[in-house]
Each structure stands twice: as structure tokens, then as C-alpha cells.
TrEMBL record:
Residues 229-378 form the Acyl-CoA dehydrogenase/oxidase C-terminal domain. Belongs to the acyl-CoA dehydrogenase family. Keywords: FAD, Flavoprotein, Oxidoreductase. Residues 122-217 form the Acyl-CoA oxidase/dehydrogenase middle domain. This is Cyclohex-1-ene-1-carbonyl-CoA dehydrogenase. It comes from the Bacteria. Pfam families: Acyl-CoA_dh_1, Acyl-CoA_dh_M, Acyl-CoA_dh_N. It comes from Labilithrix luteola. GO terms for biological process: butyrate catabolic process; fatty acid beta-oxidation using acyl-CoA dehydrogenase. Residues 6-118 form the Acyl-CoA dehydrogenase/oxidase N-terminal domain.
Amino acid sequence: MDFDLTEEQRLVRDTARDFAAREIAPKAAEIDKSGRWPSEIVAKMAELGFLGMAIPEEYGGAGLDNVSYSLVMEEISAACASCGVIMSVNNSLFCDPIYKFGTPEQKKEVLTACAKGEKLGCFGLTEPMSGSDAQTMATSAEKVDGGWVINGAKNWITNGPHADYILVFAITDRSGSKVKHTAFLVPKGTPGYTQASPDHKLGIHGAHSCTVFFENCKVPDSAVVGNVGEGFKVAMATLDGGRIGIASQALGIAKASLETSVAYAKERKSFGVPISQHQAIQFMLADMAVELDAARLLTWRAASMKDAGTRHSMQSAEAKLYASEMATRVAHKAIQIHGGYGYSTEFPVERHYRDARITEIYEGTSEIQRIVIAASLLKA
Ligand code: CAA
């Protein structure tokens, strides 16, 4: 067991850290306040190869491993959690399944452009009436001559307002005892596929999500991703990777909360000394550091297993569960250390607290992660 990063992983992490400090962190408060889509940062992340990190170079990706992906996600999210999830959705929820399940044509035309960041992808699983119980979706696709006609709505679609493609899941067979789903690749602009305006949210204001609609949206047979009737497995396998991305986003939010707290505790004085000299503050900082490290090790383990090609559903769920709840606890303590200033927008910790909260919800709530973990335990 080796806990050391490789030379290449360190280099990738340092590149991301430097880029995030120079080009993202100075804008993060403004992006949060204005709620604007950070298009110039998305373009620079593309130039650096951060939008298709674990996709082979032949398909436009950076050809790196998933540990590197986690490291970069942490650094980008520490500066701006909105930029982190924009990156995570394109990498984990779009490029990864097209690489794993897509046809050679889909890989050549769609994956290559999205992994390079010339185009952007999103993932359509959740619906207004089906989130955690994803199989019960209402969206359906009916087989017609030469293709499929999709009808339904998907919501909370991160990147939805800006994405050039959506990987969407629909029921294609209700005849047996179990419904069967199929995954489809739909380009923006396809007649019948429309996007509502962006949602209003507690945090990650720069990462736009929206509801999308399919009204008699006809796609050719070549739009099917993976096998007909096996779409649910495509979705679940994709989320095994996506949860590593969100765990890494949570690591970044917690890291930023801790670093800001350490700096503040050394500066701020009370009772005649910097508050860092009070044991009450030291204990909070120590607990934050321990929890952050524990979450990081869980996340790196899941990423390493993905790199090794080992099934990692349980390990990804453990990482996502622990890292997301940890990020909320750490950001909560960061506000406490900052006192009244922590509650104001003068300091970034209130933003970290708001941004942390979503990591406990999207790509499977904490309760869903517990279901996945318990199911693995009981099966074993
Ligand atoms: N990999 C491959 N196959 C898998 C799998 C995995 N990780 N997990 C399950 N499957 C297979 C099962 O083997 C089973 O196959 P068979 O029918 O052949 O036996 C099939 O899928 C159904 O599995 P389950 O019976 O376990 O399914 P379930 O209905 O009980 O649901 C669940 C399981 C874990 C609760 C699942 O519904 C789930 O993960 N829900 C949460 C959904 C979610 O995370 N949504 C997030 C949306 S994306 C998002 O949030 C994006 C964003 O904005 C950033």
C-alpha cells in the first residue's frame, strides 16, 4: 500500500492548484453573488485538459488516472465549487459513460469534442417525481421506424442550460415484471428537446441546472448508448464514478474552509492572544483536519479501485457519504471559528457552507449511499 502520490500526480495537482489560485479563487465570490456561468473558466479548464481527464488521448482526453482527476477536482472546488461540479459532470457523468458504453462513432464525434472541452455534456436521470428511486422514471422512448421517440421531463440537470449533449435515460420496455431502460445521446437543437431557465438554488450559483423537456423528440437508432434495455446499469455504473467526483468536490470545499480558518485563527485576537492559542479553536481545527484526511483517503481508495478496473460501488458510496457530510461539518466549524464574520459575505466560509450542502444530495443522497453500502455488505 502506497500513500504517496506519483511525480505525475503531484505535477497535475500543482498545476490545478496554481491555476485555481490565480484564475478562479479571485472570481469565486463574484460568481457566487452574480450567479453567472463562468464561461472563461470553463474554457481554460478545457485548455488544461481538465474536462476529459481520464479519457484516453485518442478521444481528446488527458489520458490521466482517476486519482489525478480527484486531485484536480479538489483543487478546483476549493477555489470555486461551482466550477468543480461543472467539471465533474462533464468528466464523470458524460465522458466516462460514452467512453465505456458508446459506439465507435459516438466516441469519435461526441466524446472527442466533449473530452477536449470544445463541447459540453450533461446527464439526464432525475425527474420531477423520481430522484432517489431512479428506476421509476416516467420518461419513455417508443421504438419507431429508424429510431426512437422520447417523451418526458428531467430536472436538476447540472450543465443543462449550456450543454451541447445530454445522456438521457428512458423506459423502453414495460412488458415484463421489471421495466427496462435505455440510454440515449441527444444533441441540443434536436427538435422536441428544450431547456427551461436555470434553477434558483442555495449554493453553487455558477453551476447552472435546469429542467429539460422531451416532446416527441425523435432520435435515430445510432443515439442508443450501450444495449437497449440495459440503460439502468449504464446509469448506476456511471454514478459509481460520479460519486468519486462529488466526494472530491466536498474535499475541496472542506480544504478551503480549513485553510481559511487556520489563517483567520492566527490573525484574530481575543483575550489578548490570537484565537489559535485557545484550545477551543485548536480542537476544532484538529477535528476538521482529521475528518478531511479520512475523507481524502476514502476518496483516493475509490479512485484507485476505478483505475484498477475493480468494482467500486461500495467504496465510492462510502467516499461520497463521508466526504459530503464531512464538508458540511467542516464548513459549519469554519463559520464558528470566524464568529460573526463567518456569517457575513465578507469571508468565503458562508459560501462554503452553502456549497457543501448539495454534496449530500446530488448524485445520490446520503441515505442512498447508505443503501448502496448496506446492500454490498449484506450481499457479501
Ligand atoms: N453497476 C452496475 N449495475 C448496477 C449497479 C452498479 N453500480 N447498481 C445496480 N446495478 C444493477 C443491478 O445489478 C440490477 O440488475 P438486475 O436487474 O440485472 O438484477 C439493476 O441495476 C437494478 O439494481 P437495484 O435492484 O439495486 O436497483 P434499485 O431500484 O433498488 O435502486 C438505487 C438502487 C441504489 C437506490 C438507485 O436507484 C440509485 O442509485 N438511486 C439514486 C439515484 C441518483 O444517484 N441520482 C443522481 C442523479 S445525477 C445528479 O445528481 C447529477 C448532478 O446534478 C450533479
